Protein backbone atom coordinates (compact mmCIF):
# COMPACT_ATOMS: atom_id res chain seq x y z
CA UNK A 1 0.00 0.00 0.00
CA UNK A 2 2.81 2.41 0.92
CA UNK A 3 4.71 1.66 -2.32
CA UNK A 4 1.58 2.32 -4.38
CA UNK A 5 0.91 5.59 -2.54
CA UNK A 6 4.50 6.81 -3.13
CA UNK A 7 4.39 5.83 -6.81
CA UNK A 8 1.07 7.55 -7.39
CA UNK A 9 1.98 10.84 -5.65
CA UNK A 10 5.74 10.89 -6.12
CA UNK A 11 6.50 11.06 -2.37
CA UNK A 12 9.52 9.73 -0.59
CA UNK A 13 8.70 6.80 1.72
CA UNK A 14 9.61 8.62 4.94
CA UNK A 15 7.56 11.66 3.92
CA UNK A 16 4.63 9.43 3.01
CA UNK A 17 4.77 7.69 6.40
CA UNK A 18 4.63 11.08 8.18
CA UNK A 19 1.66 12.15 6.05
CA UNK A 20 -0.28 8.97 6.64
CA UNK A 21 0.47 8.79 10.36
CA UNK A 22 -1.83 6.32 12.08
CA UNK A 23 -3.86 5.68 8.94
CA UNK A 24 -1.64 2.75 7.87
CA UNK A 25 -3.16 -0.62 8.73
CA UNK A 26 -1.66 -2.37 11.71
CA UNK A 27 0.26 -5.59 11.06
CA UNK A 28 -1.74 -8.77 11.40
CA UNK A 29 -1.12 -11.20 14.21
CA UNK A 30 -0.78 -10.74 17.95
CA UNK A 31 2.13 -9.32 19.89
CA UNK A 32 4.93 -11.82 20.31
CA UNK A 33 5.11 -12.92 23.94
CA UNK A 34 8.38 -12.44 25.81
CA UNK A 35 10.17 -15.04 27.84
CA UNK A 36 8.10 -16.68 30.53
CA UNK A 37 8.89 -15.07 33.93
CA UNK A 38 10.41 -18.20 35.46
CA UNK A 39 11.76 -16.44 38.56
CA UNK A 40 8.66 -14.40 39.36
CA UNK A 41 7.75 -16.68 42.33
CA UNK A 42 11.00 -15.69 44.10
CA UNK A 43 11.03 -12.00 43.25
CA UNK A 44 9.67 -10.96 46.65
CA UNK A 45 12.19 -13.19 48.47
CA UNK A 46 15.09 -11.75 46.48
CA UNK A 47 13.94 -8.17 47.04
CA UNK A 48 13.64 -8.68 50.81
CA UNK A 49 17.13 -10.15 51.09
CA UNK A 50 18.57 -7.52 48.73
CA UNK A 51 17.17 -4.65 50.79
CA UNK A 52 18.31 -6.14 54.09
CA UNK A 53 21.79 -6.87 52.68
CA UNK A 54 22.42 -3.25 51.69
CA UNK A 55 21.57 -3.68 47.99
CA UNK A 56 24.32 -6.02 46.85
CA UNK A 57 25.05 -6.41 43.15
CA UNK A 58 24.07 -9.68 41.49
CA UNK A 59 27.55 -11.22 41.66
CA UNK A 60 27.73 -10.66 45.41
CA UNK A 61 24.07 -11.41 46.09
CA UNK A 62 24.21 -14.86 44.48
CA UNK A 63 26.58 -16.38 47.10
CA UNK A 64 24.94 -14.29 49.84
CA UNK A 65 21.59 -16.03 49.33
CA UNK A 66 22.97 -19.25 50.85
CA UNK A 67 23.92 -17.29 54.00
CA UNK A 68 20.60 -15.47 54.38
CA UNK A 69 18.06 -18.14 53.38
CA UNK A 70 18.52 -20.30 56.55
CA UNK A 71 17.25 -17.29 58.56
CA UNK A 72 14.48 -16.29 56.11
CA UNK A 73 11.77 -18.62 57.41
CA UNK A 74 12.06 -17.25 60.95
CA UNK A 75 11.01 -13.79 59.78
CA UNK A 76 8.84 -14.31 56.66
CA UNK A 77 7.65 -17.92 56.75
CA UNK A 78 8.90 -21.10 55.14
CA UNK A 79 9.72 -21.24 51.44
CA UNK A 80 8.04 -23.66 49.03
CA UNK A 81 10.18 -26.45 47.54
CA UNK A 82 9.81 -24.86 44.10
CA UNK A 83 11.08 -21.52 45.46
CA UNK A 84 14.10 -23.19 47.09
CA UNK A 85 14.92 -24.89 43.80
CA UNK A 86 14.76 -21.61 41.87
CA UNK A 87 16.87 -19.76 44.44
CA UNK A 88 19.45 -22.54 44.29
CA UNK A 89 20.05 -22.09 40.56
CA UNK A 90 19.42 -18.38 40.00
CA UNK A 91 22.35 -16.60 38.30
CA UNK A 92 23.90 -13.23 39.07
CA UNK A 93 22.64 -11.77 35.78
CA UNK A 94 19.07 -12.88 36.55
CA UNK A 95 19.28 -11.28 39.99
CA UNK A 96 20.41 -8.01 38.43
CA UNK A 97 17.48 -8.10 35.99
CA UNK A 98 14.98 -8.79 38.78
CA UNK A 99 16.33 -5.89 40.85
CA UNK A 100 16.98 -3.38 38.04
CA UNK A 101 13.86 -1.24 38.76
CA UNK A 102 14.89 -0.75 42.40
CA UNK A 103 18.48 0.42 41.98
CA UNK A 104 19.59 4.05 42.45
CA UNK A 105 22.76 6.16 42.18
CA UNK A 106 24.49 8.36 44.77
CA UNK A 107 26.65 11.48 44.22
CA UNK A 108 30.33 11.99 45.01
CA UNK A 109 31.33 14.38 47.78
CA UNK A 110 34.27 16.10 49.46
CA UNK A 111 37.67 14.72 50.53
CA UNK A 112 38.95 15.76 53.99
CA UNK A 113 42.52 14.43 54.11
CA UNK A 114 45.00 17.06 55.29
CA UNK A 115 48.74 16.24 55.11
CA UNK A 116 50.72 15.51 58.25
CA UNK A 117 54.42 16.33 57.93
CA UNK A 118 55.73 15.45 61.38
CA UNK A 119 56.64 11.78 60.77
CA UNK A 120 56.86 11.55 57.01
CA UNK A 121 60.58 10.79 57.16
CA UNK A 122 60.20 8.12 59.88
CA UNK A 123 57.39 6.11 58.23
CA UNK A 124 58.41 4.76 54.80
CA UNK A 125 56.28 4.82 51.70
CA UNK A 126 55.00 1.35 50.91
CA UNK A 127 57.41 -0.03 48.33
CA UNK A 128 56.50 -3.71 48.41
CA UNK A 129 53.41 -5.86 48.21
CA UNK A 130 52.38 -7.20 51.62
CA UNK A 131 51.48 -10.83 52.17
CA UNK A 132 47.79 -10.58 51.42
CA UNK A 133 47.15 -14.25 52.21
CA UNK A 134 48.03 -13.85 55.89
CA UNK A 135 45.46 -12.04 58.07
CA UNK A 136 46.76 -9.16 60.14
CA UNK A 137 47.93 -6.52 57.65
CA UNK A 138 45.52 -3.58 57.76
CA UNK A 139 44.87 -0.49 55.68
CA UNK A 140 43.37 2.44 57.59
CA UNK A 141 41.64 5.62 56.45
CA UNK A 142 39.36 8.38 57.74
CA UNK A 143 36.07 9.67 56.32
CA UNK A 144 34.62 13.11 57.03
CA UNK A 145 30.92 13.41 57.93
CA UNK A 146 30.99 17.11 57.06
CA UNK A 147 28.08 17.53 54.68
CA UNK A 148 28.87 20.20 52.09
CA UNK A 149 31.54 22.05 54.12
CA UNK A 150 34.76 21.02 55.89
CA UNK A 151 34.57 24.06 58.18
CA UNK A 152 33.89 23.69 61.89
CA UNK A 153 33.65 20.62 64.11
CA UNK A 154 32.09 17.34 63.07
CA UNK A 155 32.40 13.55 63.35
CA UNK A 156 34.91 11.43 61.44
CA UNK A 157 34.74 7.69 60.78
CA UNK A 158 37.86 5.51 60.88
CA UNK A 159 37.95 2.41 58.67
CA UNK A 160 40.36 -0.49 59.16
CA UNK A 161 40.38 -3.37 56.65
CA UNK A 162 42.48 -6.54 56.47
CA UNK A 163 44.15 -7.10 53.10
CA UNK A 164 44.01 -10.89 53.26
CA UNK A 165 40.50 -11.53 54.51
CA UNK A 166 38.62 -8.29 53.98
CA UNK A 167 37.65 -8.22 57.68
CA UNK A 168 36.77 -4.59 58.40
CA UNK A 169 36.24 -2.58 61.56
CA UNK A 170 34.88 0.95 61.87
CA UNK A 171 35.00 3.53 64.63
CA UNK A 172 33.93 7.16 65.06
CA UNK A 173 35.92 10.06 66.55
CA UNK A 174 35.28 13.74 67.16
CA UNK A 175 37.46 15.93 64.92
CA UNK A 176 39.99 13.10 64.28
CA UNK A 177 42.32 14.22 67.08
CA UNK A 178 45.43 12.11 67.68
CA UNK A 179 44.29 10.88 71.11
CA UNK A 180 40.85 9.90 69.85
CA UNK A 181 42.31 8.00 66.89
CA UNK A 182 44.70 6.20 69.24
CA UNK A 183 41.89 5.12 71.59
CA UNK A 184 39.79 3.74 68.76
CA UNK A 185 42.78 1.96 67.19
CA UNK A 186 43.39 0.25 70.53
CA UNK A 187 39.77 -0.83 70.66
CA UNK A 188 39.90 -2.16 67.09
CA UNK A 189 43.03 -4.22 67.80
CA UNK A 190 41.39 -5.68 70.92
CA UNK A 191 38.37 -6.82 68.87
CA UNK A 192 40.24 -8.24 65.86
CA UNK A 193 39.97 -12.04 65.48
CA UNK A 194 43.68 -12.16 64.53
CA UNK A 195 46.90 -10.45 65.70
CA UNK A 196 47.79 -7.07 64.20
CA UNK A 197 50.95 -7.46 62.06
CA UNK A 198 51.09 -4.30 59.96
CA UNK A 199 49.24 -1.09 59.16
CA UNK A 200 49.29 1.11 56.09
CA UNK A 201 47.62 4.53 55.96
CA UNK A 202 47.67 7.80 54.06
CA UNK A 203 49.61 10.97 54.95
CA UNK A 204 46.91 12.53 57.14
CA UNK A 205 47.90 14.03 60.47
CA UNK A 206 45.49 11.71 62.30
CA UNK A 207 47.84 8.81 61.43
CA UNK A 208 51.24 10.49 61.24
CA UNK A 209 51.62 11.38 64.92
CA UNK A 210 53.77 10.14 67.81
CA UNK A 211 50.82 8.91 69.89
CA UNK A 212 49.86 6.26 67.34
CA UNK A 213 53.41 5.41 66.26
CA UNK A 214 54.59 4.80 69.83
CA UNK A 215 51.62 2.58 70.54
CA UNK A 216 52.25 0.44 67.44
CA UNK A 217 56.05 0.36 67.61
CA UNK A 218 56.95 0.19 71.32
CA UNK A 219 56.04 -3.45 71.90
CA UNK A 220 57.82 -6.82 71.86
CA UNK A 221 56.93 -7.40 68.19
CA UNK A 222 56.50 -3.96 66.56
CA UNK A 223 53.69 -3.49 64.06
CA UNK A 224 55.03 -2.83 60.58
CA UNK A 225 54.06 0.69 59.45
CA UNK A 226 53.99 2.10 55.94
CA UNK A 227 52.24 5.02 54.29
CA UNK A 228 50.92 5.67 50.81
CA UNK A 229 52.32 8.14 48.33
CA UNK A 230 50.77 11.60 48.65
CA UNK A 231 47.70 12.08 46.41
CA UNK A 232 47.70 8.41 45.30
CA UNK A 233 44.43 6.97 46.62
CA UNK A 234 45.03 3.74 44.71
CA UNK A 235 47.81 2.91 47.19
CA UNK A 236 45.04 2.32 49.75
CA UNK A 237 42.58 0.75 47.33
CA UNK A 238 41.25 -1.87 49.78
CA UNK A 239 40.21 0.57 52.47
CA UNK A 240 39.07 3.21 49.96
CA UNK A 241 36.57 0.66 48.69
CA UNK A 242 35.41 -0.09 52.24
CA UNK A 243 34.91 3.63 52.90
CA UNK A 244 31.83 3.38 50.71
CA UNK A 245 30.66 0.03 52.08
CA UNK A 246 31.07 1.18 55.68
CA UNK A 247 30.59 4.82 56.74
CA UNK A 248 29.03 6.14 53.53
CA UNK A 249 26.53 3.36 52.99
CA UNK A 250 25.25 3.40 56.55
CA UNK A 251 25.63 7.09 57.51
CA UNK A 252 25.40 8.75 54.10
CA UNK A 253 26.76 12.21 53.30
CA UNK A 254 24.90 14.30 55.89
CA UNK A 255 26.81 16.52 58.32
CA UNK A 256 27.12 14.94 61.78
CA UNK A 257 28.06 17.67 64.24
CA UNK A 258 26.81 16.35 67.58
CA UNK A 259 29.50 14.89 69.91
CA UNK A 260 26.75 12.83 71.57
CA UNK A 261 26.44 10.78 68.38
CA UNK A 262 30.03 9.43 68.59
CA UNK A 263 29.31 6.65 71.15
CA UNK A 264 26.10 5.77 69.29
CA UNK A 265 27.99 5.34 66.02
CA UNK A 266 30.66 3.22 67.72
CA UNK A 267 27.95 1.02 69.20
CA UNK A 268 26.40 0.68 65.74
CA UNK A 269 29.73 -0.25 64.12
CA UNK A 270 30.65 -2.82 66.76
CA UNK A 271 27.31 -4.50 67.54
CA UNK A 272 25.37 -4.60 64.25
CA UNK A 273 27.04 -3.08 61.19
CA UNK A 274 30.36 -4.87 61.67
CA UNK A 275 28.92 -8.40 62.13
CA UNK A 276 26.50 -7.83 59.25
CA UNK A 277 29.31 -6.83 56.88
CA UNK A 278 31.90 -9.37 57.99
CA UNK A 279 29.64 -12.42 58.32
CA UNK A 280 26.90 -12.02 55.70
CA UNK A 281 27.95 -9.65 52.89
CA UNK A 282 30.36 -11.30 50.42
CA UNK A 283 32.94 -9.36 48.41
CA UNK A 284 35.17 -10.34 45.49
CA UNK A 285 38.97 -10.06 45.40
CA UNK A 286 41.07 -9.29 42.34
CA UNK A 287 43.12 -12.34 41.34
CA UNK A 288 44.58 -11.28 37.97
CA UNK A 289 44.59 -8.45 35.46
CA UNK A 290 46.11 -7.92 32.02
CA UNK A 291 45.98 -5.31 29.31
CA UNK A 292 44.14 -5.90 26.05
CA UNK A 293 44.82 -3.02 23.73
CA UNK A 294 43.84 0.17 25.52
CA UNK A 295 41.92 -1.39 28.41
CA UNK A 296 42.62 -3.48 31.48
CA UNK A 297 40.84 -6.82 31.88
CA UNK A 298 40.37 -7.88 35.51
CA UNK A 299 39.48 -11.29 36.91
CA UNK A 300 37.98 -11.71 40.39
CA UNK A 301 37.44 -14.75 42.55
CA UNK A 302 34.02 -15.97 43.67
CA UNK A 303 32.67 -13.53 46.29
CA UNK A 304 33.14 -14.65 49.89
CA UNK A 305 32.53 -13.04 53.26
CA UNK A 306 35.43 -11.98 55.46
CA UNK A 307 34.41 -14.73 57.88
CA UNK A 308 34.63 -17.39 55.15
CA UNK A 309 38.05 -16.16 54.04
CA UNK A 310 39.39 -16.19 57.59
CA UNK A 311 38.15 -19.70 58.38
CA UNK A 312 39.43 -21.14 55.08
CA UNK A 313 42.83 -19.40 55.35
CA UNK A 314 44.17 -21.88 57.89
CA UNK A 315 45.97 -19.02 59.66
CA UNK A 316 43.74 -18.88 62.74
CA UNK A 317 44.41 -20.83 65.90
CA UNK A 318 41.90 -23.47 66.95
CA UNK A 319 40.46 -21.32 69.74
CA UNK A 320 40.27 -18.24 67.50
CA UNK A 321 38.48 -20.18 64.75
CA UNK A 322 36.02 -21.74 67.23
CA UNK A 323 35.28 -18.36 68.81
CA UNK A 324 34.61 -16.93 65.37
CA UNK A 325 32.29 -19.82 64.44
CA UNK A 326 30.35 -19.43 67.70
CA UNK A 327 29.90 -15.74 66.96
CA UNK A 328 28.71 -16.48 63.41
CA UNK A 329 26.07 -19.03 64.51
CA UNK A 330 24.83 -16.71 67.25
CA UNK A 331 23.77 -13.85 64.94
CA UNK A 332 20.86 -13.45 62.52
CA UNK A 333 21.39 -11.23 59.44
CA UNK A 334 17.78 -10.03 59.28
CA UNK A 335 17.89 -9.08 62.97
CA UNK A 336 21.22 -7.28 62.45
CA UNK A 337 19.69 -5.30 59.57
CA UNK A 338 16.69 -4.31 61.71
CA UNK A 339 18.87 -3.34 64.66
CA UNK A 340 21.00 -1.23 62.30
CA UNK A 341 17.93 0.73 61.21
CA UNK A 342 16.83 1.11 64.83
CA UNK A 343 20.23 2.37 66.00
CA UNK A 344 20.48 4.78 63.08
CA UNK A 345 17.36 6.75 64.01
CA UNK A 346 18.84 8.71 66.96
CA UNK A 347 22.06 9.30 64.99
CA UNK A 348 20.45 10.74 61.86
CA UNK A 349 17.47 12.51 63.44
Overview of this structure, please?
The chain is of the alpha/beta class and 349 residues long. The protein folds into 2 domains: 40-103; 137-348, Ribonuclease H-like superfamily/Ribonuclease H (Nucleotidyltransferase, domain 5). The chain has 13 helices and 7 strands. The chain has helices at 2-9, 13-20, 43-52, 58-76, 81-89, 92-99, 178-191, 210-217, 237-251, 261-280, 306-313, 318-330, 333-348, and strands spanning 137-144, 155-162, 168-174, 198-201, 224-227, 286-292, 295-300. Strands 3-2-1-4-5 form a 5-stranded mixed β-sheet, with helices on both faces. Strands 6-7 form a two-stranded antiparallel sheet. Strand 4 (198-201), helix 8 (210-217) and strand 5 form a beta-alpha-beta unit. Helix 4 (58-76) crosses helix 6 (92-99) and helix 10 packs antiparallel against helix 13 (333-348). The longest helix has 20 residues, at 261-280. The protein is globular. The N and C termini lie far apart (67 Å). The model is unreliable at 105-110 (pLDDT under 50).
* Helix amount: 40-55%
Fourth-level CATH superfamily of the largest domain: Ribonuclease H-like superfamily/Ribonuclease H
Q: Can you tell me the CATH topology of the largest domain?
A: Nucleotidyltransferase, domain 5
Using the 3D structure, state the CATH architecture of the largest domain.
2-Layer Sandwich
Radius of gyration over all CA atoms, rounded = 26 Å
